[in-house]
Amino acid sequence: MNEEVFDDLMSSTDSALIVVTTAAENEQAGCLVGFHSQSSMSPAQYGFWLSKANHTYRMSLRSKHFAVHFLTTDDLAMAQRFGARSGEDVDKFRGLDVITTEQGVPLLTAVPNRIVVESITMLDDGGDHVSITARVISTETTGSFVPLRLSHLGDLPAGHDNAERAIHPSAGHRAPRQGGLTADG
Ligand SMILES: Cc1cc2nc3c(=O)[nH]c(=O)nc-3n(C[C@H](O)[C@H](O)[C@H](O)COP(=O)(O)O)c2cc1C
């Protein structure tokens, strides 16, 4: 497999970017996400992938509800805030207007095109991200928008490198079970 060709193919798709937020036990988390898609029409479902290196991933292990914020070309600063720093080191929500849902999920007022979802499955298939598929429980929009895409970002170094994940496959990772997260992450 030629990784360079794979990278070129993937960057040619020029993904739209979202910010996924969540909360557990009064702690809020969120990160910039490029791996995501609608995954069912009826019922309406949405899927996204979280890096095992991220604070948001660790919080997702303790939460059921997430907000998916669809960024627009006006949201470059928001992408930088949620994509280039880790919630381990900074409070990414500080100074932002936030509404909290009844499930405790932080909604970013400045990013009004969004859905709130409830997770159905979390699957660790041995890659450096885990997939979360979720049922859409509420939707909000201000109308159509031009999405912020990978190509608008330039070279934004992520707050966490994927290689930082706690458990690495070469360190004896077991095959995942379908539909569930393996205990060894
Ligand atoms: C363009 C871009 C796309 C990204 N896509 C994802 C993604 O799909 N899933 C993910 O978990 N992290 C993704 N990240 C990385 C996180 O947003 C980043 O490491 C963030 O700082 C993690 O914050 P946290 O540790 O507070 O969760 C992406 C970063 C960038 C710059």
Overall shape: it is globular
Approximately how much beta-strand content do the residues carry?
A: 25-35%
The strand order across the widest sheet is 2-1-5-8-9-4-3
Radius of gyration: 16 Å
- By CATH reckoning, the class would read Mainly Beta
Q: What is the β-strand count?
A: 9
Question: How many separate domains make up the residues?
Answer: 1
- Look up the CATH topology: Pnp Oxidase, Chain A
Count the helices. How many?
A: 4
What would your notes on this structure say?
The chain has 185 residues and is an alpha+beta fold. It has one domain (3-166): Electron Transport, Fmn-binding Protein, Chain A (Pnp Oxidase, Chain A, Roll), CATH 2.30.110. It is 16% helix and 32% strand. The chain contains four helices and nine strands; from the N terminus they run αββββαβαββββα. The protein has helices at residues 3-13, 55-60, 76-83, 150-153; strands at residues 18-24, 27-33, 36-40, 45-51, 65-70, 98-100, 106-108, 114-123, 129-140. A seven-stranded antiparallel beta sheet has the order 2-1-5-8-9-4-3. The protein has a two-stranded antiparallel sheet with strand order 6-7. The chain is globular and about 45 Å long. The structure holds flavin mononucleotide (FMN).
Brief account:
The chain is an alpha+beta fold. It has helices at residues 3-13, 55-60, 76-83, 150-153, and strands at 18-24, 27-33, 36-40, 45-51, 65-70, 98-100, 106-108, 114-123, 129-140.
List the topology elements.
Blueprint: H1 3-13, E1 18-24, E2 27-33, E3 36-40, E4 45-51, H2 55-60, E5 65-70, H3 76-83, E6 98-100, E7 106-108, E8 114-123, E9 129-140, H4 150-153
The structure holds flavin mononucleotide.
